[in-house]
Structures are given as C-alpha cells and as structure tokens.
Design a protein that fits this description.
This protein is of the alpha/beta class. The chain is built from 22 helices and 30 strands. The protein is globular. It binds adenosine-5'-diphosphate and zinc ion (2 copies).
C-alpha cells in the first residue's frame, strides 16, 4: 500500500505529494505520520492511499510511525483543506495546519494531571478525629471539611489547612490522593445564565425560514435587540436533537461573554470554546473534545470554521458584516467562502446574522441567492433608541471647545441622576490621518477616486491609497479658508479624564487595546460594567459589539465623522454599521434609550440614514455608488503585496510582477478597470519595505485570477515575500 503524504513544511519547494510505503490498512487517511525525508525525519499528513506508486519500488521509503491515536483529519476536512489550498494558493501543509491545534505539531501537548484528596473509607471521620493528638486543630478541621465536601483539589486543601497537616493525614492513611487527567475547561467562571423565553412571532418566523429553506444560506437581518441570539440557540438545539453538530462563529470571543454564558447554560459540556487566548493545553483539550464527539458545538472566532466536527448540521456566523471574518495572514481566507464549501461537503445549513448586513450579503439576499429572514422590531416592541444630533461646528461657534457637546453633557447628567449607565464610544481608528476642517467640515479627497486622502507626516503630502496620487498638504481649507484644520485627535485616556472632571464621584471604565492586553481583560471589564461597578464605559470599537447591558440608557458617539472619512471604499458601509451597532447598546431593557451623536457634518447622508435606521435606503444608495464607481461587489480589488527587508529587491520584484500582469491585461483589457503599481501607504512595517500592484477587475475575471496568482507568486523568494489579497479589508 502507498500513502500519499504532505510533509508539514510550508515551503513552496516541498509543497507536493510524496509517496511512502505502508503495510495494508496500517494507517488511515487523515493520519499524521512521521516520515524519513532526506537525512531528517518530518511530520506529515496522509492525504491519499493507493495500491501502487508510479515511482520504482526501491525509491520509496517507509512511513516510520503514526503520531496520534486517531486520524486527525476526516475526509471532509481533507477535502476542505484542498479547497483552501487551491482557492487561496497556499502550500497544502499550511491549509492542513488550520485544522489541528498548533500544539499537536511537534508533540508539544502534555496531558495535565491534577491531584484530588478525599477521606479514606476505612475509618469514620469520628474515629479519625478521636485518634488525633490534642491541639491538631488543622488536621481536625481538614477532616471536617473533607467530610462535607467529598473530593476536593489537593492544592485547595493544602492552602486552606497547611501542607504539613495534610501530609500527616496522608501518612496516617486518613486522606487518599487520586490523580486524574485535568479537565481544563476554559472560562469556568462565566456567568452561565439562561432565560426561559417565549419566542416572538418574528423569532419564530426566522427559525421557520431557516428550517424550511432549500438554499444553503439564510441571512437574518434583525435590528439590534430583536433577539437574534435566542434564534441561534433554538436552531442549535434542534440541530443537536437531530443528532447533528453545530459551529457558532462570533467576531471576537473575548467580547462575547454573554453569548458564551448562554450557550454554556443551555448546552453545558457540549460546548467547546476555540479561542487563541486559551492556554496551549486548554486549546488542545477543547479541540479533542470536539474530535472525539464529546462536545458537539464549537464556538469561536473565524478559525473555528475548521473545527473537527463530524456530522455538521449548521454553521452560524453572528455579526456577519464584521471585518474579523477575513483572515489577514496566509491563508487569507474569507470565512463565508470556507463555510459555503464546508456546508456543501457536509450538507449543513449556514445562517448569517446582522443588524447591518454587508452590502455583499444583502445584495445576495435580495437577488435570491440567499434566503432572507427579517426581524424588524426589538423584543417586546421596545423602541430603538432615539438619536440626538450635536452639531459640533455650532458648539465651536458657541465657544464650547470641550470634547463633549452640551447635549451630551446634559444627557450624561440625567443618566447619573436616574442611576443609569452610559457608554462613550470613541473611534480612534478613524483618527488616523485624514484632514478635516473644523469650521466647515470639509475633508480632503482624491480627484480620481471617491475616497479621502491621507496625510503622510514623513513627507508632508496628502495621498490617495487607491490610485497613488499625491497632493500638497493644505495650509488652509479650500472651501472656507479656515486654518482650523485637524488631523489628529484625542485619545480614550483624555476622554476618561474629562469625564472625571465633570463627574468626580462617578467611576469610569476604559476599554481599548491598551487596557485589554491580557487574556481575560475584556471579560473583567465587561463583567464589572454589567455589575454596575462603574457608571461609564469609554472605549473604541470593542464597546460596539453585541453587548446586552440592561442599565445602559445612553450612548455617546464622540466622532461620528471620523470613520466616514477613513480612506476606503467601504468607509460609508463601516460607518453605517458602526453607528447602528453602538447605538444598539442603548435602551435594551425596559428603560428608553438615547444616543447622542457628535458630528461636524450633521447633513451627511450616511449619518442621516443611520439616525433613521434606514438600512434599505443606505443599501440602495451605497449599491448605486459602488456600481457607478466600479467597486465591490461590482468589481474585485486584487492587491499583490511585496515585502522585503531589501528595498531594491522589493522594487525590482514589483516591477517583474507588474510586467507579468501587464501581459495579462493586454490579453484581456476588458477585465481590468484599474491597474497600477506603487509603494504601500505604510512603506515599511517591521523593517520590511512594502510595495503593491493594485487592480480592480470586473466582468469575467475568474479565468484570469488564477494566472495573476501564479505569475505573482512565482517571484516569491527566501528574502522577498509575495502574496495576493482579494478585497482586502485594509489597504495600509
Ligand atoms: P440581538 O442579538 O438581536 O441584538 P439579543 O439576542 O441580545 O438581541 O436579545 C436582546 C434581549 O432580549 C436579550 O436580553 C435577550 O435575552 C432578550 N430576549 C430575546 N428573546 C426574547 C423573548 N422571546 N422574550 C423576552 N426576551 C427575549
Ligand atoms: Zn473649511
Ligand atoms: Zn485616488
């Protein structure tokens, strides 16, 4: 028998199948094996079995051994890996690695052993205590404790009563120590709570639509607070009942303790959390519980789409519009694409959920490619929060130079008086480099593209990230002549300080990348806030996610404009999504919610649409613009990235790539809307110089896409990295 093996080295040179001899039926398809390779031994995956090799018998070596007790990859996962390899043009080994926890490779997982203590059954507790020397209170107390508690962690016992007391109890034979494989259940301390609710009509309808459709994908477009989570839970429940398994994807697991808590409450140990923030051991255990079938629900961020589940019945992608569903390192996969393939292989359903679906998904829902379910009202008919728009130009004219508008100050005060809570949202990402006039709201834009310009401090010019044009930095506003131009802003810390000045007696929590670097930092902050240990929560994008805090009645959006002018064709879409999501945190329980939105552009269309919750209007308008300007979904943006520590080599690689693609363009000019080469907006990251060939393809481009990949990737060397991105979510 011959095993076809992919060695676990993600290099182009060894990215092919190698034949190895095995005894008949010795190793199964999908097993990890150790094989001789040149003068070394390597780990590899068996991706095929066949009776005979095309090579001569004498040239074929034998598989040394199998690395695990079971094949790590099912045939479904093998097929999915093949899809990832081909679709995203990565070495097979890299695709295969997505399916196993990193710690499995190189045999780095150790089973964690934990010691437990319990009382011996040879004596009664009374006899034990009676036999103790006088004054051995610690020992007597430990016996009493164990009598009550039964089996406890040895470490806990030692801590409570002292090592020496426990040691002498062991020596007397009163305390028995047993060792067990640790059950490293992550997030044990989660608030597992379950609400017993009667479904709303819209929830019932959404569930029926998912269950009755023949289409692969159902998009649930449900306003914030419409009860999407309950719909997911019910769908998972019926999937489990039919003997199948489920994958539940969320943008960022650390930001969704409530979703986790509810899943745990309802499905207990059947839930497995796949999360990069777990320890290596925990990660492995959780993976293994899915692999062995002990757990039937995988919840995690995008990589959980590769969970080792069999018999998959449903894949749910919550907040489907979120940018985190696109991988930014190789393989640069789009989660929905992988989900579609997986659903096709396993016969499972896909549910996408959002209050603000991406233009692409909603387009597919309207065209009938996806099934659509709508949830238009909040649970119990509560109103969506009311928007108050603060015109910051007017504030400035009135002499208010503080970060907060007078409306916001007033609402904050009311919020404190009524003992409610508020979230202050601040979009730091938007504060990157666009130039905005503080007097008239003018923002510098490119003449050739419908995007804003970015200020490049190093050489003092304004640049378009789409076509590469450069403009001179403005010294005054071309619209109104004001010199009051802003291209930098406040940070979250400053906002906290301002809040404290206004409300010295109130406590403030801050949540951003700086405050949440450790593993469970998000959880801690979110928990404290939900326990009302602080009045205000100040934060970046993180506070916009699906949190459900009943006491929050006010949301302040400090700089609605900033993300609007992020230089990206998706900036309107992102702004609409962000505003709707943040606003959606307000007034979710019985109290009415408000949102104060501060802007320099109160008449901006996107803001207007967000304020009136007009998703359909927004969609129609945005779709029109994309069509007219040739942006996705009407075109595909392809960027070939070149990164190297050697600037000269990077530049010459760019030139070669450009010339090869130029040839393709000459053959098929109809497929190119735009094509150019340039330095990347951020010219150097981690000491690597960055260049890009940028194009927008339209019409029938599928046939040339693979060629663009192949030609470009052929210039990859040890020193110079070349990779291709499609509709990248960042163009920095
Ligand atoms: P969404 O994800 O759509 O923004 P959630 O799923 O967080 O909304 O639900 C909003 C709130 O409504 C939650 O507190 C949830 O527990 C509650 N809820 C959901 N469904 C029902 C129901 N049928 N009856 C009563 N409360 C519900
Ligand atoms: Zn101006
Ligand atoms: Zn431009």
């Amino acid at each position: 028998m011959i095993a076809e093996v992919i060695v676990d080295v993600a290099h182009g040179e060894v990215d092919r199948v190698f034949d190895y001899k095995i005894e008949q039926d010795r190793y199964a398809l999908g097993s990890r094996v150790e094989v001789p390779f040149g003068r070394q031994t390597l780990e590899g995956f068996i991706i095929g079995l066949k009776p005979k090799s095309d090579l001569s018998e004498s040239k074929i070596k034998e598989v040394i051994r199998c690395l695990d007790e079971f094949p790590v990859l099912s045939t479904e996962c093998l097929a999915l890996a093949r899809f990832v390899k081909e679709r995203y043009h990565v070495p097979f080994a890299l695709a295969l690695r997505q399916f196993i926890p990193a710690e499995l490779r190189g045999g780095r997982v150790k089973k964690k052993i934990i010691s437990f203590a319990s009382l011996s059954s040879e004596f009664t507790p009374v006899e034990m205590v009676a036999s103790l020397r006088k004054g051995s209170t610690a020992q007597a107390n430990a016996i009493g404790y164990l009598k009550e508690e039964g089996k406890v962690l040895l470490s806990v016992l030692n801590e409570k009563f002292g090592n020496s007391a426990i040691k002498s109890l062991k020596e007397k034979g009163f305390v028995i120590i047993s060792q067990e494989k640790a059950d490293r259940m992550p997030y044990k301390e989660l608030d597992a709570f379950s609400k017993d609710v009667t479904l709303s009509l819209e929830q019932e309808d959404a569930i029926k639509r998912v269950e009755n459709t023949q289409k692969a994908v159902t998009l649930i477009h449900g306003v914030t607070g419409s009860g999407k989570t309950e719909v997911y839970l019910r769908l998972i429940n019926s999937t489990l009942k039919s003997g199948k398994t489920a994958i539940m994807l969320v943008p960022e697991i650390a930001l969704t303790p409530q979703m986790l808590g509810q899943l745990r409450a309802r499905f207990g140990d059947s839930v497995s959390i796949l999360h990069s923030g777990l320890s290596a051991g925990e990660r492995y255990d959780e993976w293994l519980r899915l692999k062995t079938g002990e757990a039937k629900i995988a919840i995690g961020a995008r990589s959980a789409i590769f969970a080792p589940l069999e018999n998959l019945g449903i894949i749910i992608i919550d907040e489907e519009h979120d940018g985190s569903y696109e991988a930014e390192t190789a393989p640069r996969y789009k989660t929905v694409e992988v989900a579609l393939k997986r659903a096709q292989l396993s016969g499972s359903k896909i549910v996408l959920g959002s209050a603000t679906p991406s233009i692409e998904s909603y387009d597919k829902a309207l065209s009938g490619e996806y099934n659509l379910a709508k949830m238009t009202t909040r649970i119990n008919g509560k109103d969506l929060p009311e928007f108050i728009v603060s015109d910051m130009r007017a504030e400035l004219r009135r002499g208010n130079e503080s970060i907060f508008s007078s409306d916001l100050k007033e609402e904050l005060l009311k919020c404190v008086e009524q003992d409610n809570q508020a979230i202050i949202f601040f979009n730091r990402r938007g504060y990157s480099r666009q130039v905005i006039c503080r007097d008239c709201g003018y923002v510098a834009r490119c003449e050739n593209c419908d995007v804003t310009l970015n200020y490049h401090r190093d050489n003092g010019v304004l640049k378009c990230h789409y076509c590469g044009s450069a403009y001179k930095m403005l010294s005054a506003c071309p619209e109104c002549g004001s010199v009051n131009l802003s291209y930098s802003g406040a940070g979250t810390q400053k906002i906290v300080a301002e809040l404290k000045k206004l409300f010295p007696n109130e406590s403030v929590l801050r949540m951003d990348n700086d405050t949440t670097s450790n593993k469970e930092g998000h959880f801690k902050i979110l928990k404290e806030f939900s326990q009302k240990k602080a009045r205000f929560l100040v934060g970046t994008q993180m506070v916009a996610k699906g949190h459900d805090f009943p006491s929050v009645t006010l949301v302040g959006i400090l700089d609605a404009d900033m993300s609007l002018y992020f230089s990206d064709y998706r900036s309107s879409e992102r702004t609409f999504q962000l505003l709707t999501q943040v606003a959606g945190r307000s007034g979710r329980a019985n109290k009415k919610g408000k949102v104060v939105l501060q802007t320099y552009n109160p008449d901006n269309l996107i803001l207007r649409q967000a304020i009136s919750y007009d998703y359909d209007g927004f969609f129609k308008n945005e779709k029109g613009i994309r069509q007219a300007t040739g942006f996705p979904p009407y075109a595909l943006i392809v960027r070939v990235m070149i990164e190297s520590e050697d600037d000269g080599e990077a530049m010459s690689t760019l030139k070669s790539v450009y010339e090869e693609i130029k040839k393709i363009q000459q053959k098929r000019p109809d497929a190119f809307l735009f094509f150019n080469k340039m330095k990347c907006p951020v010219k150097r990251i981690k000491n690597k110089f960055r260049y890009q060939a940028l194009m927008r393809l339209c019409g029938d481009y599928q046939s040339i896409k693979d060629e663009i990949y192949e030609k470009s990737l052929s210039f990859k060397t040890q020193k110079t990295l070349v990779y291709v991105e499609e509709n990248p979510s960042n163009l920095y």
